[in-house]
Amino acid sequence: MLFKLGSLLMKPGAKMALLAFALVFPFLAANEYQVYVMASAFVWAIAVYGLNIITGYCGQLNLAHGGFFAIGAYTLGLLTADAGWSFWPAFVAALVMTAVLGFFVGIVSLRLKEHYFAIFTLCVGFIIYLLIDKWEELTHGPIGVRDIAAPSGFGLVDFTETTPFYYLVLAFLVFSIWFMGRLSRSLLGRTFIAIRNGDELAQSLGINLMRNKVLAFVLSTTYAGLAGALYAGMVRFIGPEEANINHTFDMITYLLVGGIGTLTGPLLGTVGIVWITQSLQFLEEYRMIIFGPLLVILVIFFPRGITGQFLTWMHHKAQSLAPGKKQKASKVQTASAREAENNA
Amino acid sequence: MNLFFQQIINGLTLGSIYGLVALGLTLVYGILHIPNFAHGALYMVGAFMSYFFMTDLGMHYWIAMAGSAAVVAVLAILCERLVFHPLRNSPPIHDKIAAIGILLFLEAVVQMFWGSDFRRLSSPFTGIMNFDGLIIPEQRLLIIVGAFALVIALQLFLRKTMTGATIIAMAQSREGAFLVGIDANRVAMMTFAISGVLAAVAASLYAPINLVYPAMGHLVIMKAFVIIILGGMGSIPGAIAGGMIIGFAEAFGGFYISTAYKDIIAFGLLVLILSVRPQGLFAKGAH
Predict the structure, then answer these.
(1) Number of structural domains, chain A?
(2) What pTM does this model have?
(3) Most buried among A96, A202, A313, B24, by the most CB within 10 A?
């Protein structure tokens, strides 16, 4: 019972309520712009889920994530605008592209540990930015890519409208979260967590570090590519700024505020911050004056973010409700609750 | 021949600046094992402080540089006290994220006061020296001489004074340093202050031949990271040698290969070297 209390956010009821809210949101929204903002928040949330796989579960700080987002966006943009592909084949190509590039970057970068990995990926992200900015024959350089195709609705739906596109993004988001939930409860997800908690210990359990890390990396870059491709289909105009390192920093903020290594964290953090930023429009340029110190305060005092903090709080409350239990039993509960937090 | 010589001067100038920034980074890493992503922001604040002291308060170039070094040193100490010290027992990923938080904050603050326009810092050394047809702008000469003087002064401080020796001791072995009664807090603050001074001086020296803007630290800090990985993280001679390697690679690569891609050269070099030797060029043993 305590286990269930401790993982309230995992309850099917809470999940259904969130989903129902997301489904009726376009009817509740005051105007189309709000729907658009929500759709873009969902797109970023998908990318943040990707970052959560490699950074949250596997413990490797990947600073090239924004770069892979841009690769997804550019693959779709260039294939539809310049090569004349229609949206869906280009969409699949974008996923394949980010996965393949993720694989090659992964097998080189994941040989490095901790700081070296973070710095290496920082450089990879910057190389991606510079290539997009300078390789004008391919990417049009600073001019960017225009006339990107919108998703074709096969004559049934018109995805150039905001509301249908919102539902399309929502569908992908739900799929992403579902996949993430399956992953985090599977043996593979536990393997990733084991790697985060201790490289050497995981290795001594017979876990193949390299293979699992590369798999986590490829999954995360594919998520980034998915988000990037959706983003390109939504705004229909992209430039080198999509690969700016600040996007990666934004995503880290979303992830940390929501709760790193949790299942609901990326969604809560992204949607929450996107709306706060929206409602404080005048802050747009200076939002980092708040979010910078917020990041620092979070890692010092609340390293597990909103979701993690909430789960810990629920767990403490549950423990104080049941004081008469045997110590042994409570130890087991602590362990299982911690696991629930890990997976939540 | 003359053009070739110009590239040597360019390489030395770039190498000196990169070396100074990388030195600060490598000192902090050696003591606290933190890759300080906020170091580039300290560099940027250093340039803006010099700009502020010179244009708004009308100070002389040298006094402005000293003032900027003092401000950035205090700022670096504050970072250590308020952010990295409370995080000393956290998982390493938290230090990195907190450093990114500082970086974002400092950039936003500078942008609030000065906007994102490009500015120019004027230097009293605008002349050109001519040695038998070999032309060296005074500011570049100043950068090279200044950087070498600073490195030598730092070496003397670290090797010949007691306070400097505590830093070296701490970098060699934390536990050993504690055993002989070295105050870890004092060493950490001092190291951050030195790294801040190095960053501010490098920025003030380089700003007159470059531009001053809030994002100016990005490229420099990334190159400084490349340098300390090449040179072995925590190694002082490695930072200087690595700075020169990257400086020359950029100067010659930019001239003989392609100007547009000259910024990629450093990162390409890093990717290439780490692919072959994951522990860096000069590092003893893997990390």
Answers:
(1) 1
(2) 0.83
(3) B24
